[in-house]
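Possible race condition, two jobs.
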Amino acid sequence: MEIERRFIASPQVLNLDLGPGHDIVQGYLWAGPQGNARVRVDGDRGLLTCKGPKFGFCRNETEIPIPHAAALDLLAALPAETLIHKTRYAVAVGGLGWAVDVFGGRHQGLIIGEIELTDPAQMFLRPDWAVREVTWDPRYGNSSLALSGWQPVAA
């Protein structure tokens, strides 16, 4: 079960000592209201991920390692304009780990901070740089970004 909260992050997060990031390229084999299937290259790892429909901010998720070459082949078969390019950084806040994704390509300028929780009721410290929650806004899901691009939305 994936229990995730997502936030638009202020560019001020880039002033933190983020340490080394890692580049991710991902694309969607299919996506819709019932879930999605994603292929990802994360460094030298290939991953195939299937996600079910969302229930609030929870959903079933299965992630399977696949050969790096197979992941590259699957990505190459997808339209280039639908691929997501981002650099992911790990940030500790209040004893919990956040992922900060700095998007590139046609999503340049978008920064998303996300935290994965162990329970839907789990409390967490929201950092100042997490300026607006977009957990329930489908425009900020990666599958939506892949298909429709991104334009900044006024707060």
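Job #2 (started ~2 s after job #1):
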Amino acid sequence: MPSATLISAQSFLVDRIVPDCEVIHLPSADVPGGILKYRIAVSAFRSQERPRRLKFVPAQNITAPDGSIIFDFRHHSPGNWAHLLTMHLPLLFHISEQLAIPWQQALILMPKSAPRYARRALAMFGLKTLFTDDIVHGAGVEIIADPWQCFWPVRPDWATTHSVLSALHAAIAREDRQLPRRILLLRRDTRTLTNSADIVALTEPLGFEVVYPEDYTPAEQAAFFMNAEAIIAVHGAGLAPLLYRTKNSAHMKLVELFPCGHITSVFRFIATQTNTAWVGVRGKLRPEYVKPAYRLSKPYRRFSLDNFEVDPRSLMLALRKLEIAA
């Protein structure tokens, strides 16, 4: 993963007399792989996800339809839009191709509580699904991925095969809504911008239109990343369709907005794999963020979903670095 830039809010942390924005150099880094094994076997597939039930109900036994090949994706939070699009589905696309399993034969097991948008994403590719927390008997693919993220370096190739892109472009062609070329991708429930009015006022004159992903179909969300020339996005699941850009896609520019409690390199890495120029912008620090950030023996997760404020100055620096603003 090549080096990149993260820009912080204006503060006295750069100069105690003249406040300024920190421009942080993120060094290049290796993204490790791992071991991926899979085989077709007759088995009893049990959910690894904890069912969301008010009271315990023993799992029942279900037999898969004859001719189906089971892919049990009831693990690693498949109800999360980003996990489903960037982990589970690329794994399905790769394994089905390697084992010559037609998509029509694949039966995708998902938790009974899987949200509507996850169901719509699977339907977009025409996949057969079974939403259940029960034990399912039949022929299926047993998968060992160690670690689970071991295929990060190669998953863009798996998500942009001819069959995947054909299904995706067919779904996009069925939509008729005009989509913006410059997008400000915001969130409503968590990680919302507390000064969104300031950010809209800054970006609107540059041609950016506010978009909330949940207001659009999965196909339209994929189209954002295939057709847009520039996107400013709050870090989160709304960025998942970035993976479905090909190496030959038209060059795109991406500014990723982070709350201090959730800085990751996930989409920075995908950007480098999909002909996308990337700059990160970190929101303002709060006093309660500081001490836990230096407790290196514990995960830094407590503030992950906090709403946050982005300094318009730091965002403007990012836009200038990407030559979106003068």
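The chain has two domains: 4-30+179-321, 35-151.
Logs attached separately.
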